Amino acid sequence: GNPLVENGVLQGYSTFGNRNTLSLNGTLNAGGVLDLIAPKIDSRGEVIVQDFKQSNGKVTSAAINAISGLNRVARDGTVQASQQMPTALDSYYLGSMQAGRINIINTAQGSGVKLAGSLNAGDELKVKAYDIRSESRVDDASSNKNGGDNYQNYRGGIYVNDRSSSQTLTRTELKGKNISLVADNHAHLTATDIRGEDITLKGGKLTLDGQQLKQTQGHTDDRWFYSWQYDVTREREQLQQAGSTVAASGSAKLISTQEDVKLLGANVSADRALSVKAARDVHLAGLVEKDKSSERGYQRNHTSSLRTGRWSNSDESESLKASELRSEGELTLKAGRNVSTQGAKVHAQRDLTIDADNQIQVGVQKTANAKAVRDDKTSWGGIGGGDNKNNSNRREISHASELT
């Protein structure tokens, strides 16, 4: 921001009349109070602020004030006036920040704050914007390797291939003593860990959900020699869910002021009290994880019985990553319309209160296991008969909600 100086004394900063971006990369170390003020902030590095001891012995506590939008800001970080931008301008905090207090604000209507990385405050951690979006980073890796004995000629051939792909998650972590995330429109936290003493998550609508991770493995082994052939391919795919976690050593409050609170595969705990309050609906449900494996193949004149034909089989199993709410004290679910739970686990050591102006729906969430087998192989050119199997089955499992 541009400095505002009166009578030779710095009064504050102004970002009126510009659309500049303050970009931070690498490592930034500072002492005392660090003010980051710009219409847009893009922080992708490491920012560390420590207490600063002045020459008179007085200690200035470590603090970060990151204020984006068109504002006039006082020296103490207070926003004195704001102007609205003609278009949305999000700010990004994708690295790490560490200080005694961290205060992140975007005053631009329709603009948001994007979080991914680590925010670690010894005392207060506050984030305020029109939208707050927190996600963890997904990294992809893959391999594809052919066998060393692969060959093809007029008499026969071998083709062996091994392949895999994987996704790993670097979780976003928010830590502090008192944590407050307030969004005028939507606070959406995906695969995010929040740990503190007193935690408040608030939005026009509030969503805590998970990140799906996919792992695959594949193996192909095809061989033939004159009239003999044996081909087989095996595949496996795992879909895993990494949910969001909120852990408060004091109290936790999850609030929507206009629409719904949705917790999908989320784990929320509080040592003193836990409350979830929605202007419309409170919805608790789980996330489904899957494990799929398959084998398909073809053989011709295989073994002494000259077995010939195709076959395939597949297995698929699902499991549920349920939403869990636990309080060592009181736990309250309150909705302006409906409270619904699907396969959720809700437990209070003391009083459990569920209050809905319309309906309370305590339901189940279903997962399924499926198996399919097809075998069209015959022996001795069909003279010896064949398997001719074509079977499939599917079984559903209902996961009941637990409210205690």
Fold and architecture overview:
The protein has one domain (2-403). The strands form 4 sheets. It has a 26-stranded mixed β-sheet that branches. 31% of the residues are buried. It has 404 residues and is an all-beta fold. Helices cover 0% and strands 72% of the residues.
Summarize this, please?
The chain is an all-beta fold.
Detail the topology: elements first, then pairings:
Blueprint: E1 2-6, E2 9-14, E3 21-24, E4 27-31, E5 33-38, E6 40-43, E7 46-50, E8 52-53, E9 59-60, E10 63-68, E11 70-74, E12 79-83, E13 91-93, E14 96-99, E15 101-106, E16 112-115, E17 118-121, E18 124-134, E19 137-146, E20 151-152, E21 156-170, E22 172-175, E23 178-190, E24 192-196, E25 198-209, E26 211-225, E27 228-242, E28 245-248, E29 251-256, E30 261-264, E31 267-270, E32 273-278, E33 282-285, E34 287-302, E35 307-321, E36 324-327, E37 330-335, E38 338-342, E39 345-348, E40 352-356, E41 359-375, E42 389-400, E43 402-403
Parallel strand pairs: 3-6, 4-7, 5-10, 6-13, 7-14, 10-15, 13-16, 14-17, 15-18, 16-18, 17-22, 18-23, 22-24, 23-25, 24-28, 25-29, 25-30, 28-31, 29-32, 30-33, 31-36, 32-37, 33-38, 36-39, 37-40, 38-41, 39-43
Antiparallel strand pairs: 1-2, 2-11, 8-9, 11-12, 19-21, 20-21, 21-26, 26-27, 27-34, 34-35, 35-41, 41-42
Average predicted local confidence, pLDDT: 92
Number of domains: 1
Number of helices: 0
The radius of gyration computed from the alpha-carbon positions, rounded to a whole number of angstroms, is 29 Å
Would you identify the regions where 5 or more consecutive residues have pLDDT less than 50?
A: none
> Which class of secondary structure composition applies to the elements?
mainly beta
* Proportion in helices: under 10%
> How many strands, what sense, and barrel or not for the largest sheet?
26 strands, mixed
Beta-strand fraction estimate? over 45%
Global geometry: globular
**Distance between the amino and carboxyl termini:** 53 Å
| Number of E-state strands | 43
Keywords: Toxin
Region (Disordered): 136-157, 292-328, 372-404
Protein name: Hemolysin
Biased composition (Basic and acidic residues): 318-328, 393-404
